[in-house]
């Protein structure tokens, strides 16, 4: 097996184990800890920590530790969050959420930098286009990574499936489910009752063990990558916090980045809606908490398969066609969710929506990362730090207003941000096409000028 591909698989398996635990926990926060909004508040502070760390931590840690040990160190922050859930309260969940958030931005920035370097290195050896190999590597990564949602949610569904059922959901409760839900007035009903503490401890034990395995696998098997650390006169020099902060924001002088920030911002909003609102206001409200895992398995499985597919399709269709697919799919889902009134008799529809959401989310996850890696190849660490910063801002705002706005209002906000993001992306593609066309036009005019000169002679 090729060395680059082997390392991509190691990173992917490490993330698979880590997010099997975190993904399952995130999807259950709003349903498990609904009292006084603790679960949503924990998620909001988590992404607030990620927002702050995106400003300066990724370049500092990657330059000082390298991609490998940045990933390992950041993974430990995720394990701490799992431990904090054993004694869930404002004094345990909020601090561990902040710690996880601080580690999340370096983790994802290091992952993006690592895959980009590996892809370009392999492309150079094989004589292939760098962007095609990078796209393929991101596709492989997200195929394996997104499957973590299958395993994490399957585990939670099997464990919580042992909770006694409480009969049919009252029609009065169903009237306030879906887009009509405002502040989740039906949170205390039987259908969404909290599982026993023994079952919660069993689930948390499995999740914590999975996170520890991820740390060990990455620390032992992943090879350090060259190019993540900059050297000068043979000595490694780590940037200061202030210079790292500046390097992250200096990229804002690039017009393309100022336009592209809406893509990761929307990615944060749409993921937050699925994890915090669709699971609670649609699935838990109408079906019960035991169905959350199964519905999210459908999302994760389709997301994983589409991630691999898009990584290969991008070389033939180009990224613009894939972005169009993602935008049209999410646009259709948002409008349909505004009109749909969820009911237990429509069980298949719950899975259809989560599956279609996965089809579109796979576009944002694979193509956004590849786009940033290709357009900002000379400033990969700062570019991916910017990406995580704006994605985290989307999470923070979405989870922040989660307990204050009706679901219908949240869907209209999603619709607005998606529309703006698509327009901004189109402008960037126009700028890139002009940039590529300009050198070609210059090359075509030179032979004509030379021919005219020879004629005159």
Automatic annotation (TrEMBL):
Transmembrane region(s): 39-57, 69-90, 96-117, 137-160, 199-222, 288-310, 322-340, 346-364, 385-405, 411-428
Protein's cellular compartments: Membrane
Bilayer topology term: Multi-pass membrane protein
Keywords: Glycoprotein, Membrane, Transmembrane, Transmembrane helix
InterPro entries reported in the protein's UniProt record: Ion_channel_UNC-93 (IPR010291), MFS_trans_sf (IPR036259), UNC-93_regulatory (IPR051951)
Keyword Membrane: yes
Pfam families, alphabetized: UNC-93 (PF05978)
Domain of life: Eukaryota
A Gene Ontology term for the protein's cellular component: membrane
Family stated for the protein in its record: Belongs to the unc-93 family.
Protein name stated in the entry: Protein unc-93 homolog A
Gene: UNC93A
